[in-house]
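MODEL INPUT / OUTPUT PAIR
PAIR INDEX: 1
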Amino acid sequence: MENTIDEILHKGNFTSYRKLINKEKGVNGYEYLHEDRCNGNIISILPYRLNNDIVRRDNPYDFLLRYEMTPCWDMEKNVYSSITGGVDIGDDVVESVLKELKEEAGYTVTKDELIYLGTCFGTKSSDTTYYLFTVNLSYKEEGEATGDGSYLEDQAHCEWVDDISVAEDPLVYTSFYRMTREGITF
């Protein structure tokens, strides 16, 4: 952006706090968070599967959610969220989805099986772009979730749920809405 100053106010291990100034556009110090580790690019996956439970004909699908502690949301309890990961600088978005699905949930899928649901932003105080995906895991065998070796990831796991309203992550709801818009019926 011509005539724009993007100043780093604070830099941490994974993120930086920045300020934008563009006098011509009336932007006199817009502060925001930037995720440096992934250049502001995150993938989010909301897998689903057909549930053959005859009793639950009103809801024939289950959803795979991540159950983990997210310290900035709550350090006293785990919360349900989508499966997420940063797109490492130089990596491909789709390859990152395949890696995170295997790493966090233990499922191996192909690029052709992924359903791209578009992008979204999280909040107006962050420039992060979220790439949303879903995949049908109805006939997939669950393998070992290898994790990335971090303590928090070692304490987390994925769970199949029949009601996404247990999630506290807005990416779950955005993905669900877009799944219905794409013609995946629930």
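PAIR INDEX: 2
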Amino acid sequence: AVRMDRHEENAREIARHLAGHPKVRKIYYPGLPDHPQHDLAKRQMKGFGAMISFDLGSFEAAKAMLARVRVCSLGESLGGVETLISHPATMTHGSIPEEEREKLGITMGLVRISVGIEDVEDLLADLSQALEAVG
């Protein structure tokens, strides 16, 4: 229970940070009040989880950002205690035709984070410095 509380607490902080970042075009996290299923998630869940997806607008932007992360590890898993970051269009959903991925919202600019329990300030600093690479 303590680990899950930390996952969710970190994810809330990171989602708020990313939602306000000028290089993030769209964010998907049910813990944000403007998420379409926010009210449903509040009724059905104790917390909002630790999975965040966000769109940077292009494959080039996502690739640049992913190349710069240092605390977040690139990986396809939902993770454990460590933060994992992935590019669904070329990793978990790479075998799905691009047209189908687009219909599902899995764009070439989409990045997914499974937030871990590391110090949230370290995670925020890592994501911030990585987003500096996005043109």
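PAIR 2 NOTE: The CA atoms of residues 7 and 117 lie 5 Å apart.
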